[in-house]
């Protein structure tokens, strides 16, 4: 398999995985978690019902209070911050609650307001909680029904629900709660990065050169996502973190919703922006007489990866940046074609055939058609000032230029 074919196979796998995780129309699905607990049903009900002792054990809720004059409404405060850094709140409506002759407690609820998200986001959400007596205690069953677009949201809800029930069980048994961040622990993420490297290795050849390319690609992804995390921390995202998904790469996650368009654009730009600082260092190292081959390979991967991320596609960094800077369709279209043209020129400059460039452009156009379910914030993002637009635009120009130079420089010396 040639390098060109390898690249297209990897792109095809990534497009398929992205579609499955972010855009696959799953429709309405119900997630059900059931757990046997060594406690009477009445006691479990007091802990697990809305308005009960949720804040004593729930991993995400810090307080629960009734709303005056509205007996069927409750306000829940969460540990997760909103865009201003305050505790996120949600108002839930209790549509049905009761106890049967067999001693089963149940309630049905929905979310009617959210301090971070528009109420439309929760329009299809329903939750049912049931506590049933058993011979050795009681069984808790929680069902959450919602419409899903993409497997990622479904899996996130499933894991969160299991985490909630496990926290209740730990509280009842008197055990120390398991840290819910264990998946995001640096050691776990390092192991996933190693797994991703090994999975990529066969695509580049099962030899030392193939392993070198696979390792370099993983390192480039790490540097890129660290750039996003630097921006998140600068904007006050205290719990910003990075998770590694084998084959797909890394994903930097902020600690709260965005507050402004400038914040969105800067956090997206800094992936390529921080990586750009490595370019002059690598070129200087190469020109200083160090072993040139590996340095040039790393430089080529670094430049190419970041250029692809700057393409003006919907889910790419470039698309996010341009949508914040340019607010009219005409300006956005012109800027998108300009950035795409620069990247296509780079491919032509390093010797890619017109057919290869056309095929690559077709794939990325296909990728841009992937649409996820829109998460609409409750309040519109703060608009960018002209100074912020100018600064972000020059930042994009600088990141684009330096990575173009990295690719041209590395290819000129590797293949020239």
Quick rundown:
Its cofactor is Zn(2+). By secondary structure, the chain is of the alpha+beta class.
Describe the model.
It is a single chain. With 416 residues, the protein is of the alpha+beta class. Helix content is 52%, strand content 21%. Strand 2 (61-67) and strand 3 form a beta hairpin. It starts with a helix and ends with a helix. The model has no long low-confidence stretch (mean pLDDT 87).
Task: Chart the SSEs and their pairings.
Blueprint: H1 3-23, E1 25-37, H2 41-48, H3 54-57, E2 61-67, E3 70-81, E4 87-99, E5 105-114, E6 126-134, E7 137-149, H4 151-173, H5 186-200, H6 208-234, E8 241-245, E9 249-253, H7 261-276, H8 278-287, H9 292-309, H10 317-325, H11 329-349, H12 354-368, H13 386-414
Antiparallel strand pairs: 1-7, 2-3, 3-4, 4-5, 5-6, 6-7, 8-9
Helix pairs in contact: 1-12, 5-6, 6-7, 6-9, 7-9, 7-10, 7-13, 8-9, 9-13, 10-13, 11-13
């Amino acid at each position: 398999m040639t390098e060109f074919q390898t690249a297209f196979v990897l792109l095809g796998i990534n497009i398929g995985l992205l579609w499955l995780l972010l855009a696959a129309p799953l429709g309405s699905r119900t997630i059900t978690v059931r757990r046997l607990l060594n406690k009477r049903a009445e006691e479990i009900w007091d802990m697990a019902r809305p308005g009960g002792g949720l804040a004593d054990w729930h991993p995400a809720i810090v307080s629960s209070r009734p709303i005056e004059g509205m007996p069927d409404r409750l306000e829940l405060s969460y540990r997760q911050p909103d865009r201003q850094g305050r505790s996120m709140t949600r108002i839930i409506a209790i549509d049905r609650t009761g106890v049967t002759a067999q001693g089963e407690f149940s309630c049905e609820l929905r979310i009617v307001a959210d301090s971070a998200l528009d109420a439309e986001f929760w329009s299809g959400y329903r939750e049912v909680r049931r506590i049933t007596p058993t011979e050795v205690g009681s069984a808790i069953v929680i069902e959450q029904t919602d419409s899903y677009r993409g497997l990622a949201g479904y899996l996130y809800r499933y894991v969160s629900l299991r985490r909630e029930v496990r926290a209740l069980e730990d509280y009842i048994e008197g055990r120390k709660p398991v840290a819910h961040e264990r998946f995001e622990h640096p050691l776990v993420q390092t192991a996933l990065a190693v797994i991703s490297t090994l999975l990529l290795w066969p695509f580049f050849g099962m030899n030392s050169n193939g392993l070198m390319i696979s390792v370099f690609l993983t390192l480039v992804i790490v540097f890129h996502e660290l750039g996003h995390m630097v921006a998140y921390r600068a904007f006050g995202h205290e719990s910003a973190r990075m998770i590694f998904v084998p084959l797909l790469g890394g994903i930097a996650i902020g600690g709260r919703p965005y507050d402004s368009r400038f914040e969105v654009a800067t956090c997206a730009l800094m992936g390529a922006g921080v990586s750009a600082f490595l370019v002059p260092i690598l070129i200087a190292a190469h020109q200083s007489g160090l072993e040139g081959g590996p340095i040039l390979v790393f430089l080529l991967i670094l430049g190419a990866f970041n250029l692809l991320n700057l393409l003006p596609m919907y889910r790419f960094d470039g698309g996010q940046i341009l949508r914040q800077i340019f607010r009219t369709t005409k300006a956005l279209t012109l800027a998108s074609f300009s950035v795409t043209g620069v990247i296509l020129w780079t491919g032509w400059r390093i010797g890619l055939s017109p057919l290869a460039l056309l095929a690559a452009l077709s794939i990325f156009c296909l990728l841009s058609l992937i649409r996820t379910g829109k998460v609409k914030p409750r309040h519109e993002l703060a608009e960018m000032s002209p100074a912020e637009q100018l600064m972000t635009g020059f930042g994009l120009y600088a990141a684009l230029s330096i990575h173009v130079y990295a690719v041209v420089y590395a290819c000129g010396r590797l293949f020239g």
